[in-house]
Amino acid sequence: MAEQALIIDGKAAAASLRAEIGLEVAAIKARRGLVPGLHVVLVGDDPASRVYVASKEKLAAEIGMSSVAHRLPAETSEAELLAKLAELNADDSVDGILVQLPLPKHIDTGRVIDAIDPAKDVDGLHPINAGRLAGGKPGLVPCTPLGSMLLVKSVLPSLSGLEAVVVGRSELVGRPVAQLLLQADCTVTIAHSRTRDLAATCRRADILIAAVGRPGLVKGDWIKPGATVIDVGINRLPDGKLTGDVDFAEAVKVAGAITPVPGGVGPMTIACLLRNTLTAFHARRG
Ligand SMILES: Nc1nc2c(c(=O)[nH]1)N[C@@H](CN(C=O)c1ccc(C(=O)N[C@@H](CCC(=O)O)C(=O)O)cc1)CN2
């Protein structure tokens, strides 16, 4: 039988991370009578966003955090959303604030993110947190990149000196995960739609992170034998099935380890949001 890659179980890793955070939340409650609070703001009725927000609300409550979802109608104005954020910023019981993305087109996403108190920005997207990450300083780090790194580290004992290629340069994933790989002493390339020979660039990677949102873009022969492949793509096909940015059937025959979609990075995103909420709690309330 042909060899195949280790399939990294993101669902199991996320469950064990949540259990760990749950123990810490219980200890905080028992010792200090305090409860870390996560507030998620959803504007509009994008079906996928509704599911993700419900999941965040449920999983936060499950580990004993106080968890509130603010569901605002699609017609909410930017000024109304900014007023809601000002209210959450001023509320001392709120440790983490997250605005679910994407926002409706009439709202300027950058202005909204800028309005979140950086100390409560559990998505790690505020320019202060992005700047801290770029400078190698501690701060709140975006959840999907954080989860991707935990999965990479679960299969690679040391990242130092490895070639890492990140396909995609989004603020949510590509740029921050590249910073984290750099902090781990990888040699990092960020590839994107203008990269001249994307296949050859990917083939150099000991660690390949695909985060472009193009189903099956990364083919088996783009992968260096034995590489660790992290598929961040979550693409819904016309038949309703979810698929990643990597052609899994081909890649699994070449890679050393690979994340599936679903069941890979996705569940780690929410577990890392809970971890960030705890980090924000400790930074704010000691
Ligand atoms: N403010 C933010 N908005 C968005 C983020 C984010 O990190 N911050 N990320 C994505 C959506 N997202 C969380 O918000 C998210 C996506 C996917 C999953 C997940 O667990 N996916 C499962 C499959 C679920 C399904 O069947 O639909 C998996 O991959 O196994 C969790 C969170 C965009 N918006």
Category from helices, strands and their pairing: alpha/beta
Number of helices: 10
Output the strand order for the largest sheet: 1-11-8-7-5-6
Q: Architecture of the largest domain, according to CATH?
A: 3-Layer(aba) Sandwich
> Low-confidence stretches at least 5 residues in length (pLDDT < 50)?
none
Report the span from N to C terminus: 55 Å
Topology, number of strands: 11
Q: Helicity range of the residues?
A: 40-55%
CATH superfamily of the largest domain: NAD(P)-binding Rossmann-like Domain
Taking the sheet with the most strands, its summary is: 6 strands, parallel
- Beta strand %: 15-25%
Q: What are the bound molecules?
A: the ligand Nc1nc2c(c(=O)[nH]1)N[C@@H](CN(C=O)c1ccc(C(=O)N[C@@H](CCC(=O)O)C(=O)O)cc1)CN2
**How many distinct domains?**
2
CATH topology call of the largest domain:
Rossmann fold
Shape designation: globular
Radius of gyration, rounded?
19 Å
